[in-house]
Known about the structure:
By secondary structure, the chain is an alpha/beta fold. The strands form two sheets. Strands 5-4-3-7-6 form a five-stranded mixed β-sheet. A two-stranded parallel sheet has the order 1-2. It contains three helices and seven strands, in the order βααββββαββ.
Amino acid sequence: MSTDRIPISKEGYEKKKAELDHLKNVEMSKITEQVAEARAFGDLSENAEYHAAREKQGELQAKIALLEDQLGRAYIVDRSNLPTDRVVFGSKVKVIDLDLDDEEEFTLVGPGDEDYDRNRILTSSPIGEGLIGKKVGEVAEIQVPQGMIKFRVVEIAIAED
């Protein structure tokens, strides 16, 4: 697990915390019951239900560990103190795609607040990392899976939510 701090909004933190609580107290109880029921079927070496339930339990434990790690490294950012002269966590950034001559707008958020349909992207995403620190007029060259994209920053504001 990484030791990097994760910026997050209060809302995003609460959302992640509620998800963790649900996984631990609801989902884990269900899977524990499934394991117990499957164990009652007898010979564990040939018990497909038991092995499937144990696999689900392991996946759930991994998801819980990931959420606990993220919440443990999270720090809540007060958006009222954010700068608007450069792109930071919580910025709403208007850019021009220099190859397509197309305008796009992104809001840089932390875990729990991402919504790719609304262009709310993680600061840790390739585009988020490429835009962080840029000022109006600067060009960000960003390597993404489809290749290299170039964005010119045209406006920076603090996201309203």
